[in-house]
Amino acid sequence: MLAAVQRNGSGIAAIAVEELDEVAAGMGGTLIEGAYAPVMPWDIKAGEGTIGGRRLPSVIGYALSGTVIGAGPLGLRNAVGRRVISLVPEGSNAQRGVAPLAPFVFTVPDNVGMAQAASVIGGGDAALMLSKVPELNPGDRVVVSGANGGVGTWLVQILDLMGVRTDILSSSRSLGGNAELFPGKHVTDDPAQLASHAYAAGFDLTGEGSVLRILESQLKSGGTLVMAATPDHRASRNDIKAVFRNRPIGPKGYNWLLARLADASITAVIDSIYPLREVREAQWHVKRDPHKGRTLLRLNDNAEP
């Protein structure tokens, strides 16, 4: 099977698309024919050696959408033919992958496309987790930075469902894209245009120190700065909280996200789709280009939309 392998920690240049031996379901695994895999900033950072967690060389990625084509004796043998999304810890940027944990294989509703479903893991799940950090009530006002990415596009829509009023702090180069993504919302690249000291929470998805300081300055007393990428940051004000959160949401949360796609109350925003052989180009796009939503890899040429 074809797979994208991170050979060493030298970054995108060290990715090789190779023919590997077919994977097997094993005793408790579920074998999935891949459709799409999200291109994650986490994968890029792991390939550069800036974060740990995976021994190299290894197949890139940890999530995909696809169709169950087999299972071990303790796997999901009754799910053959089912459209699913799944965690694939041993690498998902491949034509086939094995889901070792049956509770984290989720059925995709019939009216949800496989590309949209592929953005749930690493996108929708992170957004749902972050949305639960502050205690928010309908009518509360929040500000989000990094809203145009694979997590942010989900987060803003989840906050809308909560009845929260969301403003967008954008970079200058993403200002036009954010305005297109979020018509009717207050979108600005000028901190002076934010509602000073009016926000119950600020959500930072950029990890940039200058942005964190701006968000802190805009929070009302008792507000919460929610951080997705800066675990060591400490609040500069005594009257606010700064919280880094990175926790799993559990099966109930994943099924809720898929149900929101099915009832069209949330739309998964897909920036672009690259074939598996162009994984390097896909990662470069995520790393350096303005984008709107999640970038995906098409794992098999015959993958349904």
UniProtKB/TrEMBL annotation:
Molecular function terms from GO: NADPH binding; oxidoreductase activity, acting on NAD(P)H
This protein's UniProt keywords: NADP, Oxidoreductase
InterPro entries found in the cross-reference section: GroES-like_sf, NAD(P)-bd_dom_sf
Origin superkingdom: Bacteria
Oxidoreductase recorded as keyword: yes
Signal peptide: none
The protein's name: Zinc-binding alcohol dehydrogenase
Organism listed in the record: Bifidobacterium psychraerophilum
